[in-house]
């Protein structure tokens, strides 16, 4: 009972210290908000098509707050109705045609529209027969209400005319997913090798340290690029590649912690009771070295986001049309000198904010879990 009370009190003290750190708490809620936004992305974004990939080339590179009337031409294809859950997590399969227009008018049996244009350019004039294009049972007022809507692009449009806000929100998924998977892989490999190396020592320790030092000597980005090229371009390949390069620091920290913890009396008592090495490592040693691992995981989460953004910028990360903040910067960095820098600055600020949040929460956890505090 005394041990449990002491353990609980230490956890409560750490939580109290964390709550007193303003930037740590702020970062925690910011990251929590990003997680929730990533989960419900297709519910809240204006463009809920798969990957927010609705293109309108006539309204490309528009400034934030841009508004336009959008005419939707329903598809004649009988598209299969997808489940609600699939639409929420993967977006809707959008087969209708959207046309930005400047003005429109109805005649007896036709809808006359002028496609979007600006400056001296003239838009195309098109005519649609109401009974052939729209459901016959709808009146002109119902057609106008349902199929002609004013669309507002809060962050403007990218160079393909896609809604930048929708792409940014859906892009959160890529950044958070890469962090989760990379940190998970690095923890599994790093904790296993570090614990084995620190616990057994001798030749096993020498062999694992040789592997750690060789991996440590290779520049991280070059190693990630090499693994990515070996596995092929793609979403999951990048996750695996980043995870396989981030285990080294975890292994070094775990090795050092295990070497000091294995000399403690409770480990000696566990050996005396006849417990196996695997049980001692998993049940008794690793739970007592989790504090530094939590801090490292937060830093690795931030590093994984930066690495994925760099890979996407180089064209070997998440592949189009999947929205990635790094690929958005790649597509629009030339616009910085063409008078529309926000197209590259917005995703850049998003990357900076998320990375800074993880670094700040890592620092706050380090201070909260410091036993000397």
Automatic annotation (TrEMBL):
Signal peptide: none annotated. The keyword Ribosomal protein does not apply. GO terms for biological process: transmembrane transport. CDD domains: TM_PBP2. The keyword Transmembrane helix applies. It is a multi-pass membrane protein. Gene3D superfamilies: MetI-like (1.10.3720.10). Its main location: membrane. It is found in: Cell membrane. One of its GO terms (cellular component) is plasma membrane. Keywords: Cell membrane, Membrane, Transmembrane, Transmembrane helix, Transport. Residues 172-362 form the ABC transmembrane type-1 domain. The chain crosses the membrane at residues 21-45, 174-196, 208-229, 235-254, 289-316, 342-365. Belongs to the binding-protein-dependent transport system permease family. This is Peptide/nickel transport system permease protein.
């Amino acid at each position: 009972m005394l041990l449990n009370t002491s353990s609980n009190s230490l956890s409560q003290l750490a939580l109290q210290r964390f709550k007193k750190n303003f930037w740590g708490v702020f970062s925690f809620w910011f990251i929590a908000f990003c997680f929730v936004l990533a989960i419900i992305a297709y519910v809240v974004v204006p463009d809920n098509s798969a990957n927010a990939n609705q293109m309108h080339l006539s309204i490309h590179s528009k400034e934030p707050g841009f508004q336009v009337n959008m005419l939707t031409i329903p598809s004649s294809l009988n598209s299969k109705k997808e489940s609600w859950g699939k639409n929420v997590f993967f977006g809707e399969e959008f087969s209708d045609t959207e046309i930005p227009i400047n003005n429109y008018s109805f005649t007896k049996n036709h809808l006359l529209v002028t496609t979007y244009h600006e400056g001296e350019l003239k838009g195309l004039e098109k005519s649609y027969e109401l009974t052939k294009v729209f459901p016959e049972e709808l009146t002109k007022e119902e057609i106008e209400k349902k199929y002609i809507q004013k669309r507002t692009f809060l962050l403007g449009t990218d160079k393909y005319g896609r809604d930048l806000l929708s792409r940014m929100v859906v892009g959160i998924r890529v950044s958070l997913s890469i962090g989760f998977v990379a940190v998970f892989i690095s923890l599994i490999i790093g904790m296993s090798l570090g614990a084995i190396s620190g616990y057994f020592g001798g030749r096993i320790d020498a062999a694992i340290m040789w592997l750690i030092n060789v991996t440590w000597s290779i520049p991280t980005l070059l190693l990630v690029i090499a693994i990515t090229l070996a596995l092929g371009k793609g979403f999951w390949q990048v996750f695996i590649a980043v995870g396989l390069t981030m285990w080294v620091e975890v292994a070094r920290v775990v090795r050092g912690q295990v070497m000091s913890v294995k000399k403690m009396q409770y480990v000696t008592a566990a050996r005396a009771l006849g417990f196996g090495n695997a049980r001692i490592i998993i049940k008794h040693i690793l739970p007592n070295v989790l504090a530094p691992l939590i801090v490292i995981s937060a830093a690795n989460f931030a590093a994984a986001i930066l690495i994925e953004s760099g890979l996407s910028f180089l064209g070997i990360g998440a592949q189009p049309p999947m929205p990635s903040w790094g690929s958005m910067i790649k597509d629009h960095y030339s616009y910085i000198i063409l008078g529309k820098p926000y197209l590259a600055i917005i995703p850049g600020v998003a990357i900076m904010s998320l990375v800074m949040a993880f670094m700040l929460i890592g620092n706050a956890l380090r201070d909260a879990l410091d036993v000397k505090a």
